[in-house]
Amino acid sequence: MKNVTDSFVSLGHWPSAGSFGFNTDILATNLINLSVVLGVLIFFGKGVLSDLLDNRKQRILNTIRNSEELREGAIDQLEKARARLRKVEIEADQFRVNGYSEIEREKLNLIDSTYKTLEQLENYKNETIIFEQQKASNQVRQRVFQQALQGALGTLNSCLNSELHLRTISVNIGILGAMKQITD
Questions:
Q1: Would you state the torsion angle of the CA atoms of residues 123, 124, 126, 129, taken in this order, to the nearest 10 degrees?
Q2: Handedness of CA 4, 8, 13, 16 (dihedral sign)
């Protein structure tokens, strides 16, 4: 076994004339060794390389196909979204128009209600003024009547003496007696 190990160790020391072996000098490698190595690589690696390239080609084609499908789906979704957006914009415009008309209607109702309230307040004010005028007028009348009555009593008291006073009382008693006889 020592001979086999020695033969591997001494590969670089073999003489080149008349013997078969590996040339470990990279610069001295000949064209035949390279062509043999390339031939072996091409012969055995062609199937593997072809399979690898075919698999890569199929993955690229599948990726392109999937991308196209995703693109078409995205375009469909985009069109649906645009249609929904247009629908929502139309509805928003309708709500806006309806809202403006509703606001205008509410504004007119509020103005009408305010005018009615103002008219009621004006009527209440006028009624209150009339009531206060009547009240003041009644108070003035009562005061004038009281003053007139006091003035008449004062005049009567100053003009009547005791004799005239007694005569007036007896006349009034006579009138009351006559009224009593008429009613009986």
A1: 180
A2: positive
pTM here is 0.36
Give the list of residues 6+ apart from residue 30 with CB closer than 8 angstroms, or none: 23
Domain ranges across the chain? 32-151
The number of residues in the chain equals: 184
Reported as type and span, the H/E element at residue 25 is none
Mean pLDDT per segment of 10 residues, for the chain of length 184 residues?
A: 45 53 63 78 79 90 93 93 93 85 88 92 92 92 88 75 80 87 79
The confidence score (pLDDT) of residue 8 equals 42
Residues 29 and 23: beta-carbon distance below 8 Å: yes
Buried b (16+ CB within 10 A) or exposed e, 145-159: eeeeeeeeeeeeeee
User: H or E stretch including 27?
Assistant: none
Taking phi over 0 as left and psi of -120 to 50 as alpha, with beta for the rest, 14 belongs to beta
Per-residue pLDDT, 45: 74
